[in-house]
Amino acid sequence: MADIQVAMRAADFIDTIGVNTHLAWKGSGLPYSHQDKIVAAIDYLGVNYIRDGVPHAGYTLDQYVELAERGVQFNLLVTSDAFNETGDYAHDLDNAERLVRAAPGSVVSIEGLNEVNTWPVTYNGQSTAANLALGRDVQKLLYDQVHAHAGLGGIEVLNLTLGGLRERDVGPLGNMSAFADYGTFHVYYGNGDQPAVTLAAGVSAAKAMAPDDPVQITESGYYNAIHDMSWLGGGVSEAVQAKLTLNLLMDAASMGVARTFLYELMDNGLRPTSSLEGSFGLFRGDGSPKPVADAIHNLTTLLHDDGSNAESFATNPLDISISGMPSSGKSMLLQSSDGDHQLVLWAEPVIWSMSSLSEVWAPSQSVTISLGEVADSIRVYDPLRGTGAIEQASNSDRITVELSDHPIIIDISDDGGRVVSDAPAAPAAPETGGSAGSVIGAGSHALVLEISQDFYQENARYTVSVDGVQQGGTLTANAVAGRDAPDIVTIKGDWSEGRHTVTVDFLNDAYAGTPETDRNLHVEGISYDGVDLADGSATLLSAGHKHFALPATADWAM
């Protein structure tokens, strides 16, 4: 590969990243009930765009305004419920205007109805579930009403979306370019698939509906419910989610996708994290970052450009060649307003095994970057490892790097190298632990677990539930199996008499091909009110859960 000449502004790349939220769930008792966690998570990611429904005065409007005051901008989604009540969009557009008045410039787009085949609307006596072609009429109505609304002038309109349909299914909608400024589609992945092929199909389907418009992917992401096969493919571990999501963001930008909204900010709490719907989050339900949130934070920190002309300067070409790339290797050239270029390299080998439901180790490959002239500084960064340079060269025209299965960033500078800006610290989980003496909850009965781990790269994380109700937050194992005394975790409660089920859910499995590079979780024993459970031990070799039955006997009176 040679002669990369065209650079994208680094700030423009960061602006391709958005995230879905559910701010209207503030009163649900679910994770989105906590505005402070939402604010901290968005700040930590370093992204500027949110996709959510329209705000409601007296309920969620203040939340939107608070985020807008922190620099967040919104793609507002009109709702099928409001449309079905009135037959038009007036209610939703009036709510959008309230946000525009309260926080001018905060609304950048209004999106058509969400997955009209799955969440149908009725118009002129027909339903979009039975007649997909009706989508043309309801999208045209939105486009006309937005442009006629005095308070929404200049706000762009995104096309409606479809759920679970492919390009060959969108024919009844025809060419909708005249009714939208952007084509849209939703793209999800199972089986640990690398993103490029499915993403390209989604972009093609969006273009099939609106061939003259640029594209935004308004929902896309990976989930952690490894054993949930309801989409004909399971999820991936948190570590693999981080790698695949970084690849997804790079692929989307390189394909020209104007913005990709990841689904979703936090595990939403609708179902347990062992289910598909409950495990899409970049953050866990307690607000703590998953590795994918850390990786995006590092990516946006490394590429952050605070120059006054960060989104307007003219990029310069760079005489550069790349040799030794793997067959799945890709590259993108960025530039910041200080003149530095950032060459991003990534590769997409198979990194997930559907047979073992675990990570597949991907060997690295040496790749050499050669420049047309000597650079003052060349520094290499890995967003999975932090924001410090992992290697560097001075006064050189080349560097050799190791590329495996996720993006690395090579910063090329003629003035000594960039200084990475400070960024918000990671949000802390409200309750973590697992070390000896940890006590969770209060009550007259005590459930005690002995926990250890096989350590690899980071400590094993897990949750404990009784009868499906999670006890405390995300827990962290500290003891190493075979070396340390196990962690003692005591959970107190006032449970009723009868049989009960204790569930331990292992969250962050990792495996890189050897016993020394294998993270596992061990439940070494369980007792209740001082009585040991006969079958109270297990080893969790992959992410997922293990149930333990507490029998209803005199010794186990609950």
Low-confidence stretches: 431-436, 553-558
Shape: globular
Beta-strand proportion: 25-35%
State the name of the first-level CATH class of the domain at 13-49 and 58-69 and 112-143 and 159-303: Alpha Beta
Structural class of the helix and strand makeup? alpha/beta
On the 0 to 100 scale, the average pLDDT is 90
How many H/I helical runs?
A: 9
List the strand order in the largest sheet.
8-5-4-3-2-11-10-9
The CATH homologous superfamily of the domain at 13-49 and 58-69 and 112-143 and 159-303 is termed: Glycosidases
Compile the SSE list and pairings.
Layout: E1 8-9, H1 10-14, E2 17-20, H2 35-45, E3 49-53, H3 61-69, E4 73-77, H4 80-86, H5 90-102, E5 107-111, E6 122-123, E7 126-127, H6 134-148, E8 156-158, E9 183-188, H7 196-209, E10 215-221, H8 238-254, E11 259-262, H9 291-303, E12 320-323, E13 330-335, E14 341-346, E15 352-353, E16 358-359, E17 365-381, E18 391-403, E19 408-413, E20 438-441, E21 445-454, E22 461-466, E23 469-470, E24 475-476, E25 487-493, E26 500-506, E27 510-511, E28 518-528, E29 531-532, E30 538-540, E31 544-550
